Amino acid sequence: MSATDRLDLTHRPPVAERVSHVTRHHGKQIADPYHWMRDDTRKDEAVLAHLKAENAYTDAVMAPLRPRVEMLFDEMVARIKEDDDTPPARWGSFLYYSRTEKGKQYRIFCRREDERGTEQVYLDVNREAEGHDYYRLGAVCISPDHRLVAWAADTDGGETYTIRVRDLISGEDLPDTIHGAYAGVEWASDNRTLFYTTLDKTHRPYRLHRHELGAATEDPVVFEEPDESFFLGIHRTRSGRYLILHLGSNDTNEVHYLAADDPTGDFRLFEPRRKGVEYAVDHWGDRFLVHTNEEAVNFRLLEAPLSAPRRANWREVLPHRPEVQLEEVEPFRDHIVVVERCEGVGRLRVLAMPGYEPHEVRFDEPAYTVTPTVNPEYDTGTVRFVYQSLCTPETTIDYDMQARARAVLKVEEVLGGYDPGEYVTERVTAIATDGERVPISLVHRRGLELDGDNPLLLYGYGSYGSTHTDPSFQSLRLSLIDRGFVFAIAHVRGGGDLGRPWYDAGKLEHKTNTFTDFIACAEHLIDAGYTSPGRLAIRGGSAGGLLVGAVVNMRPELFRAAVAKVPFVDVINTMLDPTLPLTVIEYDEWGNPSEPDVFERLLAYSPYENIEAQAYPNLFVTGALTDPRVAYWEPAKWVARIREHHTGDGVFLLKTDLGAGHGGPSGRYDWIREMALEYAFLIERCGASF
Q1: 97, 269, 303, 502: which has the highest count of C-beta atoms within 10 A?
Q2: Does a structural domain hold residue 93?
Q3: Using CA atoms, how far apart are residues 466 and 356, in angstroms rounded to an integer?
Q4: What is the DSSP string of 524-579?
Q5: What is the pLDDT of residue 225?
Q6: Does residue 227 surpass a pLDDT of 70?
Q7: Residue 472 dihedral angles phi and psi, to the nearest 5°
Q8: 548 and 534 in contact (C-beta within 8 Å)?
Q9: CATH number of the domain that 605 lies in?
Q10: What gap in Å lies between CA 549 and CA 367, rounded to an integer?
């Protein structure tokens, strides 16, 4: 690595102002020296000046690597097929698909009447995004008669959406425009009535509204959820017959339903909420399907007659199996597709009428991801799913559920001569401090020597029972792997990787298992010769950023560098403030610090409060000014406090996007450029060669 490839460490970060802010809780004082950075309006000039100064510092430090960033960006773009489309999906008399065009940031939504029919572009997101630095879709919803499309768009990253409607025959936009909505929108069967949700003062979707096209009156509130720990959502059943009003906290659900052809009717309660009981409802033939964890920690499937769906009439279809989590249920006219998880790996099971005859769809790789994808048609014997692994690009498959036959429709093209055979994916196991076996999925170039001299990027999340850490393919990642990196995923407790008990063992009073599991994974990879502390980097975002913040406090010497994306690191101050978005609903995940024992527990691992005088690994941290999920001041305060206390020679960079939200840039090229910047930082800090 040449001198020009090194960070410019002659610069110094801006000096942060110190304003004393001390609060007292349960007999303890909590000092927050950077509380001044909090600004709920996002308009305070001093705060904006600080964030801009941090961005300027990051730009200055990274300046010597700018040519390398551009090189990585060009390399990443060169691997993707810029002019691309999705396999068309039949729905009614149309084939629906989307495509991308070279040089354009956003997708283009299209349809045609048959394989050789004329293409109709019904929503070009590039056109809609003109004049906006940020544009993200929340929903694109076609009316049942295929004549209208409603879509919700967020133009600043704050996750407040505007809903618009377009006539697909004339191509004209209707005057109906709904401001201040949330992302979801659904049609009733009359093709004139829309249902949508709006937000309360804490940014919680809590009201359901009904809108009739062309109506001059104010849209009536159909339902309001007063409990601040519940979010409200709306969707149609797979059959299209019913509208489902779904109320959910982190551990409790309640469903209300309405015939889709009766939009002015009253939603009926399906089953009253009971603390800790989660359930979802779909329609299938003459019955409802109930997917629930009641008396089944890993969930089970029941049915209820349409005519009398009360709980006394429920009948079990798939019993609870302790070793298998029932994750998702997708009904079709004559079949049900069930997504299951066993030993940390997803699989598909198909149940056929009349007697729920089962069969399994099997795959060969040791670690992979399989998920149903776009299946708009209910009256079909074919299910479409996507298969991928850390080595295998995204593969779209149509599966004939009767013939049990697969047809590969598309394999993601990786340009530049990608050969999966040149890479190896493995599944190894680390032993946690309490003896639990923690899986690690990893990928590297074939022929890698386990001599401890390889740079390695270890990714983790471990919250909300999420399974988004399942091993999936990403061509951008090759820019690390082809430079000698090992890429690894730690399937730590708190995620849903090994079923619901795995989640429960990493939340509330068990949260520290998430952090110690991750450390055990890092230690295992070092002991097995995959890497060494001087070449080990870690990455996590949002709640995964909490993971990063906790482990660099606990074991800073174990890591060379870390990337923390919009990290949830100011745990105590956030959870003590119920006026912030998400705080109340998060009590089920982290606990309510108004309770003394919970307060002590959160205080023990909150990254911001546990910073101390020690040598921290190099940090690349991102925030977003309009982020409603993790406020921009969390990463800003965290970086400032680490700079104040660190004793080593690490560099700590903060990049705040002043025009985006929690998910980062909305355009695909902007997103790739941000990845190139992070990768350049990791390559340089871990001593790899460009």
Answers
A1: 502
A2: no
A3: 29
A4: HHHHTTS--GGGEEEEEETHHHHHHHHHHHH-GGG-SEEEEES----HHHHHT-TT
A5: 98
A6: yes
A7: -130, 165
A8: no
A9: 3.40.50.1820
A10: 28
- pLDDT value of residue 489: 98
If phi > 0 it is left, if psi is from -120 to 50 it is alpha, else beta; for residue 67 that is alpha
Note down the domain range covering 514.
3-77+422-685
Count, residues in the chain: 690
For 157-222, the DSSP string reads: SSS-EEEEEEETTT-PEEEEEEEEEEEEEEE-TTSSEEEEEEE-TTS-EEEEEEEETT--SPPPEE
- Domain assignment present for residue 206? The answer is no
* Active-site hit among 256, 283, 524, 662: 662
Residue 559 lies in a domain: yes
Helix H or strand E segment including 69: helix 66-79
- Number of neighbouring beta carbons within 10 Å of residue 102: 10
Is 517 designated active site?
Answer: no
pLDDT for residue 10: 75
Taking the C-alpha atoms of residue 426 and residue 439, their distance in angstroms, rounded to an integer, is: 10
Q: Strand, coil or helix: what is 659?
A: coil
Active site residue 50: no
* Residue 273 maps to a domain: no
Does residue 347 sit in helix, strand or coil? strand
Selecting among 463, 472, 479, 542, the annotated active-site residue is: 542
Based on the residue annotation, tell me whether 662 is a catalytic residue of this protein: yes
9: pLDDT strictly greater than 80: no
User: 10 Å Cβ neighbour count for 411?
Assistant: 14
Q: Locate tokens 């309001």: which residue? A: 224
Mean pLDDT for the stretch of residues 87-98: 97
| Amino acid at position 467, single letter | T
Residue type, 443: V
pLDDT of residue 327: 96
Helix axes 668-685, 45-62, angle to 10 degrees: 60
Catalytic site residue from 189, 627, 646, 666: 627
| Number of separate domains in the chain | 1
Q: How far apart are the first and last CA of the chain?
A: 7
> Among the listed ranges 159-168, 176-185, 360-369, which one has the minimum average pLDDT value?
360-369
DSSP assignment of 86-116 equals: PPPEEETTEEEEEEE-TT-SS-EEEEESSTT
516: closest CA among 442, 571, 459, 434?
Answer: 434
